[in-house]
Request: fold
Amino acid sequence: MKRTFATVLAAALLLSSFLPAAPEKPSPELARWLEDVAPILTRAERSVFRNLQTNADRAKFVRLFWRMRDPLPDTDENEFQREYEERVRFADQTFGRTSHKRGSQTDRGYFYLVLGPPRERTLYTTQSEVWPLELWFYKGAEEFGLPSYFYLIFYQPEGYGDFRLYSPTVEGPEKLTLPTVMRAGAALSRTAAYQAIRKINPELAGAAMSYLPSDTQAGSASFSSDSIVAAVRGLPEKKYSDGYARSYLAYKDHVETEYMDRFFSCAFQAGVFREAGQSFLHWSIEPDKMDFGTQGQSIYASFELVLRIEDADGRAVHERTEEIPLRITSEQYQTYARRRFAFQDLLAIVPGEYRALFLLKNKTAREFSSFETRISVPPAAAAGRPALRRPVLFYSRTAVPDAQRTNLKAFVFGGQEYLVGARNEFPPASTLGVFVQAEGAAAAGPDGPPSFTVDIVSHDTGESAATFSLTEVAPDPGDPGCLLATGTGSLKDVPQGYYRAEVSLRSPDGRVLAAGRENFVVLARPAPVVPWVYARLHGPFPGPEHLKALGSQHFLKGDYAAARSVLEKALAGRDDADARLLLAKSLFGLGLYKESLTHALAVHERTGDREAAKVIALDHAGLKDWETALTYLEKLMAGATEVPVLNLAAECHLALGRPDKALPLIEKSLALAPGQPAVKALEEKARKLVR
Reply:
């Protein structure tokens, strides 16, 4: 097997990545929908919709698009959708009469769809001094950057064709006025045009100079008009939340169609911390609402959490799906009814820069939420170069029972469990707890121990509102190279508002050695902010569960040597078919075909796993045992059609001098996935040999 082609085949087979089919052409209904909603689409929504490959995914997106704009999601009717579709109907009927385009696609249609009906719409279509035009008057949404009241003018240049939006700044009133208002041979000045329009209606003349009513003065045009038009065009970005769209491409394959129009919001928090010298991603997810079902005296809900972590190139380095069944008593429900629920967990993770995507499904209520965040996982800090991990803001903490101290749990550090909330909200006059990990810092040096200071800084003013020290500082029992610092400060004199807790690690002489920060909110009035937490308990590190996760990440990043080392440790602690198969793939990636074959055969004999059969075929091909490789490939092809399997089987037949058997496999592969340059070259080679 040529190494270059073998590499392509191995990547496809080992990663089980299949070449995507050609994008499906949007149906007429979906194309019409995109045209209708173009004025209110955000950039993110438009980009996501254009990147969808199938009409099924596009239809899901449409349902979710309307759902996210529904002002009363608990009612059967979507009031926003009904009103918007009525706007489209009115615009098509009213504004398309003088245009070759649909009325909703004209200038008047665009602003009508975005802003709705004007408070006043005055038509000037039979005046002898001006071209046909319309004056619209709106009450603006000041919360989105519009003035309290403003005008728009649409006119028909030269008296025919589409009505278009008039620009007081660029065009001026002379563009609205017929040349006949001046004596023959005289040029139409702006002042003369303004006066001619003023005779018709002073309000119209003022709007011709500026769309801002308080800004209408003859003789000069105001730039306020440009600002108003720009604000209208930017309304979708300000008015509609499109966070759901940004992660839709990642979660669409995990959400059933009937869920797609039932999106609920969540708050989330994620950070990377160390335990026993290993980095772990900790997270807390707090749904805005929790819908339960009832069964007898029990209240229950079934959740599913999907976590996907991608590298900078968008390749998955980790993906897992976890079932979370909840069952509580009615007494517990009443006790915690006013508190938010929090799902918290952790994951061992290798160094790198990633995008983490979370999908939470309530399978009982058939609704879902999603969010994404960027995470940076640094290598261990070098000796003598201190670094702070992200500070943790907490409400309270409790000591972990001695029997559980070696186990791992989200937001548990140094034998203390910290109660945190994803929103980082604190009631007035409450206590703010701060915890931080410091790597590469000695507990004490020749000049004394380091100190930790917290400065509470206002986001609005940039001024310090309070300062306190983290008084409990000790080495991490499981990681002596890491200091754990904890302390609390009163918020009694801190007014409501948005703040950041700036933590600094200082040397005995006061120099700042490292710093970190975390945002939080001081509320205006008391509120139940402490969540009710559901968190899994994990075995200690290093344990098979964590090593298997790390091995998978190393493998997917292409670091086969690191994957091998970690997976061999995992298997030494517990035999696991998935870990052994992953080890077989890693060994193949290292070119150790015999060692890989040993592990792959063990898995296949025990489970009959299809993926194990692929690795066995690759190993035999790597050892140039083409006939044995074909034995496994033929069984694979009998069970399902996969492009990489077809390609490898064709390569084996060519190596055995059977191009007549290779060619049909290659043709079938290219029919399924035309965009394969290496396979097309292989086809040419096979055709020449057949001749």
